[in-house]
């Protein structure tokens, strides 16, 4: 959805064989689109940073793809705007990364099932 040939090729190349990942959470972890957890007793930190591990190129491609889909797809634009308004600082970066994380289940499903994206859903090729 709004992702060009170069970004799509980069994402596919960095992921490799999708069968390596059991689920979309494993793919998100591989891409480094998860957050550090800081907790002690009943305390859970809310404002944490992204983990530093993961495939930096895949993360780059996914964040760039999120930037494209927020412009071209209504569903992702609404999600981006919602996340943008939630916090007072680092709004754009945070909203882009969360939108990229939202792309992971879609990409995982398309690659594992061999389907292409259509606005109303996915269809077999």
TrEMBL record:
Transposase IS116/IS110/IS902 C-terminal domain segment(s) = 1-80
Q: Which organism is it from?
A: Caldanaerobacter subterraneus subsp. yonseiensis KB-1
Q: Name one GO molecular function term.
A: DNA binding
**Cross-referenced Pfam families:** Transposase_20
Give one GO biological process term.
DNA transposition
Q: What name appears for this protein in its UniProt entry?
A: Transposase IS116/IS110/IS902 C-terminal domain-containing protein
């Amino acid at each position: 959805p709004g992702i060009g040939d170069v970004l799509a090729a980069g994402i596919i190349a960095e992921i490799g064989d999708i069968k390596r990942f059991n689920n979309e959470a494993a793919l998100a972890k591989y891409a480094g689109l998860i957050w550090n957890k800081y907790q002690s007793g009943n305390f859970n930190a809310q404002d944490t940073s992204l983990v530093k591990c993961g495939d930096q190129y895949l993360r780059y491609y996914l964040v760039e793809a999120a930037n494209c889909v927020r412009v071209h797809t209504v569903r992702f634009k609404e999600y981006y705007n919602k996340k943008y308004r939630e916090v007072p600082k680092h709004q754009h970066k945070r909203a882009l990364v969360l939108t990229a994380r939202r792309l992971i289940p879609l990409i995982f499903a398309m690659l594992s099932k061999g389907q292409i994206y259509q606005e109303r859903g996915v269809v077999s090729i």
